[in-house]
Design brief:
The chain has six helices and four strands, in the order E-E-H-E-H-E-H-H-H-H. The chain has one domain: Nucleotidyltransferase, domain 5 (2-Layer Sandwich). The chain has a two-stranded antiparallel ribbon with strand order 1-2. The protein has a two-stranded parallel ribbon with strand order 3-4. The protein is mostly helical. Strand 1 and strand 2 form a beta hairpin.
Length: 138
């Protein structure tokens, strides 16, 4: 999943449960303009790093422990990765998403997109709805 700078979902790619993350990194990022790409260690590959830098962005990806040359990354910027984790948690509030209720990936993708649209629409509300309080006279 790709999110914007505010943590709102932008793009999904479904894979099998046993599939590695990094092969989907370049397709997820293709066509997206950003100044920074924040991702977990699972996306630390030379191909993804070259692609991100070729797009004019800075890769904020911690290096894997098995790298011969350990790269540096901005740890303060990496702390914003929690926005991505929070986006996953918002989507998992939908029971159909959390339990993968839909058997076909087409239907599951539609459910993901609907859940993402709802999270987008709730984040766009400028002011909260006024609460209507019932006053009870004693």
């Amino acid at each position: 999943m790709v999110t914007d700078a505010t943590g709102q979902p932008m793009r999904f790619i479904l894979t099998g449960g046993q599939a590695a993350d990094f092969p989907q990194g370049i397709p997820l990022l293709s066509g997206i303009t950003a100044t920074q790409a924040i991702a977990g260690r699972g996306y630390d590959s030379d191909g993804i790093l070259i692609f991100v830098e070729g797009q004019g962005a800075t890769a904020v990806i911690p290096p894997r422990s098995n790298r011969r040359v350990i790269r540096t990354y901005d740890r303060e910027v990496y702390k914003r990765k929690n926005l991505i984790e929070r986006a996953f948690n918002k989507l998992k509030n939908w029971r159909r998403v959390a339990t993968r209720y839909d058997r076909r990936s087409l239907y599951f993708m539609a459910t993901l997109q609907l859940a993402a649209a709802v999270t987008w629409s709730t984040s766009l509300s400028i002011s909260p709805r006024p609460h209507r309080h019932r006053h009870v006279k004693a």
